[in-house]
Amino acid sequence: MESTSRDVLDIVHVARDTSGSIVGAACLGRTGSRGILRSVVVAPNHRRKGLGSRLVAHCETSALIAGITEVYLRTATLPAFFVRNGYQELSRKVVPAAITAHPQFQSADPDGTKYLGKRL
Q1: Would the pTM of this model clear 0.85, i.e. be above it?
Q2: Are 88 and 117 spatial neighbours (Cβ–Cβ below 8 Å)?
């Protein structure tokens, strides 16, 4: 896995296969001392092998190094995956205002949208 940091606010972890093709990625955004986990993706033929969990773990390690102690996300498709990785479902009302003000949280919630958080 490799990491690239575009600026202080975003860290992107990318996974490549043996041929160098990108097969997964995850992004950690920052809002003060809190993080936003987003865009966790894994190519279909690389799923169910632990790659998504490793990408999430790399983002969490990056968060800790950056002084981030809480990470939040929203998802309509894979809440169970994040629960297996230690995240707890939350009511949107308890998600910090700085997080819900982030553009990632501003779009309309599709049916089934879940908010999750984790203290690192």
Answers
A1: yes
A2: yes
